[in-house]
Amino acid sequence: MTDISTGSGHGPSENTPAKLGYSPVADIPHRPRVADTDPRAARRAERQVASMFMLSMFFVVLFVVAFIAIDKYATVYIPVFGAVGAMNVALGFTMGVAIFLIGAGAIQWAKKLMPDVEVVQLRHDLVSPTEATNEAAANYERGKEESGFARFKIIRRTLIGAMVLFPIPLVVMLRDLWISPPGNPSPSTLLTTTLWEDGTRVVTDATYLPIRPEDIPVGGLVSAAPADLPEVQEAEHNLNARGKAAIILVRMDPAEILSQQGDGWDYQGILAYSKICTHVGCPIALYEQRTHHLLCPCHQSTFDLSDSGNVIFGPAARRMPQLPIGVDAEGFIVAKAPFAEPVGPSFWERG
Amino acid sequence: MSTTNSAAANPIPASPIEAAGGGVATYVDQRVGSNKFLGRTLGKVFPDHWSFMLGEIALYSFLVVLLSGVYLTLFYKPSMVEVIYNGSYVPLKGIEMSEAYASTLDISFDVRGGLLIRQMHHWSALIFIAAIAVHMFRVFFTGAFRKPREFNWILGVGLATLALAAGFSGYSLPDDLLSGTGLQIARGIVQSIPIVGTWGAFLLFGSEFPGTDFISRLYGIHILLVPGLILALVSVHLMLVWTQKHTQFPGPGRTNNNVVGYPLMPVYMAKAGGFFFIVFGICTLIAGLVTINPIWLFGPYTPDQVSAGSQPDWYIGWLDGALRIMPNLESYLFGYTISWNILIPAVIMPGIVFTALAFYPFLEAWITGDKREHHLLDRPRNNPTRTGIGVMAITFYGLLWIGGGNDIIATSFNLTINSITWFLRIAVFVLPPIAFLVTKRICLALQRRDRDKLLHGYETGRVLRLPHGEFIEVHETINYKEMAVITSKSDIAPLPAPVKVDADGVANRKYWIQSLRAKLSNFFYADNISKPTAAEIEAAQHHLDHGAALEAPLHAYEDADEIRNAHGGVLHHPGMANTNAEQLAGRSDR
Lengths: 351, 590
Fold this sequence. Notes:
The structure holds two protein chains of two kinds.
Chain A lengths: L33 H4 L1 H31 L5 E4 L3 E4 H27 L6 E4 L7 H18 L5 H13 L2 H5 L14 H6 L9 E3 L16 E6 L2 H8 L3 H6 L1 E5 L18 E5 L11 E3 L4 E3 L6 E3 L5 E4 L8 E2 L1 E3 L5 E3 L16
Antiparallel strand pairs in A: 1-2, 4-5, 5-6, 6-7, 7-12, 8-9, 9-10, 10-11, 13-14
Chain B lengths: L15 H4 L3 H10 L1 H9 L2 E2 L6 H21 L8 E3 L11 E3 H11 L4 H28 L8 H22 L5 H15 L5 H9 L8 H31 L13 E6 H26 L5 H4 L18 H9 L5 E3 L2 E3 L1 H29 L15 H21 L1 H8 L3 H40 L1 E8 L5 E6 L3 H8 L23 H15 L8 H25 L2 H7 L11 H11 L1
Antiparallel strand pairs in B: 1-4, 2-3, 5-6, 7-8
Helix pairs in contact in B: 4-6, 4-11, 5-6, 6-7, 6-11, 7-10, 7-14, 8-9, 13-14, 13-15, 15-17
């Protein structure tokens, strides 16, 4: 069967190769491959394919040997890649080569030994034959008639109503994806409150040691947390309080402070700012002491800590909230009030 | 030279298939009637082209993702319970971390082959998404999305979206510092959505950030919901390819009504089957040799730490870039906040991009009024406006992607982050239209070149001096392969402008929409370089023959036996159509 239709099939294309005297596919001269004409070449191709399959098996054996024999903590130096885990490289290499060779062999087989003559197959109409369409339409009409879907208005409307309402329980039950904490605070209340209160001691964020003003040199930066954070974390078994309360302390020459979010919110040039970016909430600690700029590593919002933490560049729209600080009777740094504005990214109810 | 429609006989004992050793085939057929399917399927013809392998890469890398993912589920623990790490990675010993992170460390250091599978999973996921993107380019630029394949295009857009969801949900599971930062950004984005955003964020995370629920929730999404949906859509995607038959590039004998290529059995069985192992093998080799996502270096997640140079996986880069370069607009209305700086780049822009992608086939069909079936692919040059739109979109995407790495670019090239950001803020609006115009002009120039080749042949480089002193360069007719490819172009006339009031004085109610459509149609096709007519080609042929006649005395000399032998074959005979075939035949003799 030679289904050779000529012409490029659609549109006003009268200049088809066939009409111009050129050959359709049947007459394209087929160039026989070496393996088609030379039995020795064919046998060579056969050997190539078989040896790839053979090698594949060999590499599987090597894989098992490597799995058993190599110490899993050993490292090996490979040029370009550096020092890498010996086990990972050995397993990946042997398994990869074993699998790859199966594919390479199969493709070599197809290319060298299977027919390379292109054949033609006709496409069939996607559109259903008229009889089938008529039958479908007749069955549908009959069904509609027999069910009385068109006649029984009240059934139709109540059915539609029921179908619209039935997913509601499925949606309503999603409500408790978040179980409100005791006291039912709203999400915006939770986002607005942190552990910081008047008198909360400022401690380092990893070792929870209280900080004296003289611990921070001019130009220095300390990541800090509220002193009650460890207990709260212990009680709540999560990092939520940490995520909101993280702050940084920076110290600069008081003469260089251009403005603050409140009068005297610094202590001898030590300023406390939230560490959570007001853009989308990345913690920030890239501080350039000479310019007093704070740069967010995620989206490069830049804040000027000497000027109320205002945004000077980047996608963040709000300044970094400042925490007023002072020292307690023992000379340790404490907060003098909670944050005056919500920390972290904006949200609808923030106002 | 014929199809292999070997109709399977009835499954009676000693049927041909049983004689051929198909006892199993008969056994199965008597129960499910499978031979009807096999008969058609084994001889099914697929066209050959390297770009058709892009979709295959996507499919096969997805299978590798599934296989490696199943293995990982055996060892990974989707729990945020805090544990003290006591595995073999010394730098993190004794540190408090989630069980999810600890188990990922165990997979990386204590399970033999665990790191290999983890890296295979990550690498093949990256390859999966990249292959989808490039496959989509191929389908777009060749117009393979046109009728009857619009549904398959939409399925493809759905698959691309799901692939991003699969990637992002998986990226977050190790619960290392980098993945947690990605989630924190995701939460910031959800929170920016007006009215429902804050509640949405609490419902998704089950509490304030980070809470203790997201790992187990993402786990279900990552290993069940998203892959299940991908499998379902992929199945339908492939079934449609099967029933509609694959498109083919234009060439000799290839028409809109046929498929020219190799049969499934045996050639594609071996080629496609073999290619699966190639993709699988390469994913394994890369995973063995190239480290990816070394989570042990990042440390456990805590919401108050981040490392500099934080980068997402490549496919999220464009969205991160959009977030980075967006100016800091925020409005405050009646006590509520609208964060345009997040909403526009992270919600509205991707929404528009994916919607436009999904609807493009219908938009183009409406503009052109083209209701024909298309099984022969367009050459990108033959639809300059579509190709221009595609390059414009890629340019836009590329610029956003650059934005996603602006900090790395700044440090690598010693530029300021501010200047890169400002450049991109302007460039995303200016460069894509320029890319469109340049692409369209290049396409039109290529169309002119094609027309030239049809009418004037190609330049042989042989210069003749005529008796009266004139120099001419001999042109020859292009070979039939090229001829078939070039003549496959189908010219579409732009729609005429509608009339406002017809001859009977009746106002055209649809004037506005018809006028818009006509304008868009002109935008698409007005500068099309039309293909020469048969008459024009015939006239041009005479011209070519004339050139050949001038050269004939020379050929009489060349055709002398000794010259022919010295040149080792047949020379071109200008204007003679069979020359190329003859030459091909001559070549294969040797």
